[in-house]
Structures are given as structure tokens and as C-alpha cells.
Known about the structure:
The structure is a homodimer. Chain A is an alpha/beta fold. The first copy, chain A, is built from eleven helices and twelve strands. At the A-B interface, α7, α8 and α9 of A face α7, α8 and α9 of B.
Amino acid sequence: MIPAHVPERRYAIFAEGRFEGAKTAHGLLRYGKDEVVCVMDSAPAGRSVLEVAPDLRRDAPIVGTVEEALAYSPTSLLVGIAPAGGRLPDEWRDSIAEAAEAGLEIVSGLHQRLAPEFPKVKVWDVREPPDDVPLFSGEGFGVGPKVALTVGTSSAIGKMTATLEIERAARERGVSTSFAATGQTGIVISGWGICVDAVVSDFIAGAAEQLVLEAAKTSPDLILVEGQGSLGHPAYSGVTLGLLHGSCADCLILCADASDDEIMAGVPRPAVSQAARLYEEVASLVKPAPVVAVSVNTRGLEDGEAEEFVAKLAHETGLLAADPIRGSAATILDAILEAPKTGATKR
Amino acid sequence: MIPAHVPERRYAIFAEGRFEGAKTAHGLLRYGKDEVVCVMDSAPAGRSVLEVAPDLRRDAPIVGTVEEALAYSPTSLLVGIAPAGGRLPDEWRDSIAEAAEAGLEIVSGLHQRLAPEFPKVKVWDVREPPDDVPLFSGEGFGVGPKVALTVGTSSAIGKMTATLEIERAARERGVSTSFAATGQTGIVISGWGICVDAVVSDFIAGAAEQLVLEAAKTSPDLILVEGQGSLGHPAYSGVTLGLLHGSCADCLILCADASDDEIMAGVPRPAVSQAARLYEEVASLVKPAPVVAVSVNTRGLEDGEAEEFVAKLAHETGLLAADPIRGSAATILDAILEAPKTGATKR
């Protein structure tokens, strides 16, 4: 949600019964700038975050009740898990109400909006788009900083993670960045953004453009836009292309993995080299945006296999390929920094 | 709006001050199946539709007031014009309220929804999507009839007109069709459909798939899907691609014109042959859909120029090209009927 500048939060993360698989909770712990004072999940209560999930990089106590969480003086309760069916279960409602009564802001990335459920407290429904998103205007073509966008050969392939790892590499290098979040977890992590798939279709590109214009306001060296979906995902390709054109990207980082699972409904993943070429060609209808690197998700592979797979993709595509988790995003950052800023396509 | 089967309407078309440029009014007169009993526009009142706009193919009296319109026993008032700024002007409100008080249904394709403005009467806000559009599921891959979708080198290039002319050619040939409308004018013309650019982005493809599933229910020989936007239109490309993948099209008709105006914000129209190739390649990520014909909009050209231009596009693309308005859509229909039904892309 725009605007970019929000108060700092001290989060208690509500993850009752499922902290282990809680994507938004994990994202906030791993990449968020806001403080996390505790996690609420009664089964592992008494242990700590790093005891339960050692890869999350920062620790916090795990507690079993709202009352215990309040002892850590949170400002906000993050609903860090997604219920089956997308509706708020009754057993969560009591805990959220208790936190709200204690004066906490409720932060939720659920599809179901919580503001109407808790009308008397401060609720940030992260998926709710601003109500004044304009149509795409072309103003984004004039944005000063270079804009890099992650795209993928499928959805759920690690685009957000790649983007945040590139941001981390930039921070370590002293390159200033603005991360433009486009999905609920990214928005919770960065404290602002627009959930582009929740915007009315006419305004997808306009929302992406507004994000980039907003990100440019701090005059960063680099704007990193979190990608969504995939050009070949039959359910989400519209969001992907609206984001590609609307963000006025100067270059693309193609995220790929070693899976050959179908995207959905029998539709196969495209070859990485075909995907790279097609993203470039479709982008260039509006504004050239070369794919400058392949960010490889090697989850599930052994170290040796992972190295081979990264090398294979580099060979196949003729592009730099790197694994930002097992390795580092530093070389991907180099490729982005070396890419020229492009202008809109001209006749 | 789904469902497909709606009562027949007798329309009075409200077009005060601007009947001449009223796109939805003209579309309904030219292609609609519902009766049009009169048009309301006080300046040309007393004349007839064909006196003012001879190319509209069917006549109706033009009247100056709601009272006069009521004498023709309409069931519905169509707000047939779009106000500057998208809000309902006060001077229209009185007329619409008068019609509503007389018991007429109000039919509106405005961005602004009229149901909340006139809570006590029957309002059909054509742009309002159904509230239960599901995500794309892949069920559309199994649709029985062949699905043809119009696409374009730019927006506002005549995709709806081409689709409706192909429908007319099919009717004359005894080929049964179902026209799946995706924009407000098409929906008013056919009496059902979903305005896909008004759907939340996550559901564009799902909406397109629902349209095709609905259109298949009458078991037509052919489903004709009205296209939207353009793959190279920076503001609307997301809608275009969501519709392309979601409709599970078997073949495409590429709409082109003789203009070399920019699409918007300096972005040029792509070459017709490039557009054809790129639509095919992007479609085939999900389901092959060859471009089987170019439908040429020759508005503004002299007859001889038009013929040359159509021939030039046929030569450039290697495809059948035809002008459905100056000529006929019969050959385009042939090309569609000859195209095979395709299946979803397999590995």
C-alpha cells in the first residue's frame, strides 16, 4: 500500500498451529526490517524461532497465548498464516480480537479483508489496493533510477526471495535500493507496496507504474520490483504481463528451478532459454528489457547437483546464472548494474 | 454478466447531446438482437436514426424527452453515452430518474455503477462483474466447440466489430455461434458477458474461461470471443493476455488497421507480421492458437487504397486478409472453420 513511509512496527506474529509452514511469517523474519518481538504458536511455545527454523536468520521467542505475547510490547499482530478456504477460522478470531482489544494493530495478508470484521480497531489489510490507482500513463518511462524486475518460468519459483537477496547484496555493496513489493508477503516485509493481483484488471499496469514512481521518490541507485506469476501460467499471465509493461523495467532477472512439474492443468514449464527470449520480445513491444541473469532456485538438489544445474542453465541461455540462496546474489547484482537504462520503444 | 439467458428488452437509448458519437448506442443499433424503440437526443429529435447515421442498418425514431420515449413502451433505458470524467452528470440524472420512476430498467455501461445511485429500481450495471468468478481451472481446455478469439495490433481497432461481423457471416451460412462478450458494448449487444477489465486481476483468466464454458452450453458450432486491448498496449496488455490464455482459444483473428499512430505514450504499433508471430508464440505457452486471418479495418482509406492495403497485409503475413465492413467476413469465417481444434500444450 502506498505511501511508502510507514511507522516502524514491533510485530507479534500469529501462527497458531502452523509456524513451520507460515510463508508470510518466515518472510518477515528472514527479510523484514521491522522488529519481531515474538511468534505465537502453542505447540512449540517455550522454544525459539531459530530452534524450530534455523534458516530464518533471526531469533524471537515463541509463546502460546496473546497474553504472553503482550508482555513483549508489540505494536502489531501479523496474521502470519493462511487458513484453508481463505476464511478466518473462528478459533483465530478470538485471539485476534484479544490482541485488538489490547490496542494492537492487526496486519493481515488474507484474501478475506479483516477491517470489516474488526471495525473498531486499526487493521492493515495488506491485499487491499489503494482506491485511487490510475490507469497506466507512461510517466514511468521517465523514472530516474534503473528498474529491475524478477520474472519466472513458473509461479512460486522464488521471485520474491531472489529480489530480496539482490537487495541484500546491494546493501552489502553500498548500492541504495528501493524494493517495490507486489504481493502480500513482500508488502509485509517492506512495509509498503500494492498487491497487484488484487487490483481491478484495467489498472494492473497503472498500479505497477505507481509503485515504480513511488519507489523513485527516495532517489535510490536501483529499483527492484518483485515479479508475480509467469508469462506461461494460464491463471496469472495477465498479472505478469501487466506488471512487466507497467513497471517500465530496464532489465529482467529470470527465476528458474530444477523442477519439471507442470505449471498447472497439464501446462508444462517452458524451456528457460525460450522463456528468456519471449519475456524480452514481449517487453520490447513497450520498452526493451533484456534478461541479464538467471536466478536459480536449487532447492531439493545436493550441492554438486546444484552447481551443475546452475552451470547448465548458464550454458543453455548464454547468461550469467547464480543461486542466490546457496551461493550469493552478488553476480546477479553486477549484471543488473552493468545493464544500460533503456528508453521506451520507438518506431 | 452470466447467466446467458436474459429476458428480451425493448430499449430506449439515452444519448442526450451526443448520439452521433455514442459507441454503445451505435453498437446496439447495428448489432443488437434486442429491439430499439427510440433514441433520446433533443437536438436531432424529430428525425430518425438512419437520417442521422445511415450506416447503422436499422431505424428508430429520435425523441427529445423521457415522456416522449415512454410512448414507445420501452422496457429498458440504455445509458448509451459516456460522460467526460466517468461520473454521471446531474442533467442526465433527472432523465434517468424519470425513466426509472416510470418503471424502466436502467442499463448502463458506465464505469460509475448506477445501482447505488438508484437503489429502488432495477439497474443492470453492465461493467459490474459477477461476484463469484473463480480462478482459471483448466476446465476450458475441454470445451467442445471451436473457440476463436479476436486480437489486435492496438486497442480500439475494431475487434468487437470484426467478431460481430464473423458472427453475422456464420448466421448467413447456417453455422451456429455463441458470441462471448468481454466489454460493455458487446455485453449490451448480446445481453450477457463479463467485462473482463473490471474483474480483479487474479481472475481475468478465470472470467474468460467462465465465458467460454457458458457459451458452450448451447452447443454452438463455434464460440466467438471478443478480444480486448493488445499485447503491446502498455496499459491493457495484462487484460489481453489473461483473455488469450483464459479463453482457451483454438485460433486467433488478428485485427489491424492502416494507422501508424502510436498505441499510447510514444509506444508504436508493432508490425502486423510480428504481432501475429508473437500472439501465436505466447498463446502456445498454454495452448496452440494459430492466427488464421487478418481482419483489416480500412476506415479512412479510399476504396482502391483499401483493397491495396488488404492485399499488402495478406502478402506481408502470408495469411488470409479481409475487410469485414467494406467487404465481408465470409472468408475469415472459412479460415476459422478450416482451423483444427487444438489441445492444451503438452510437454
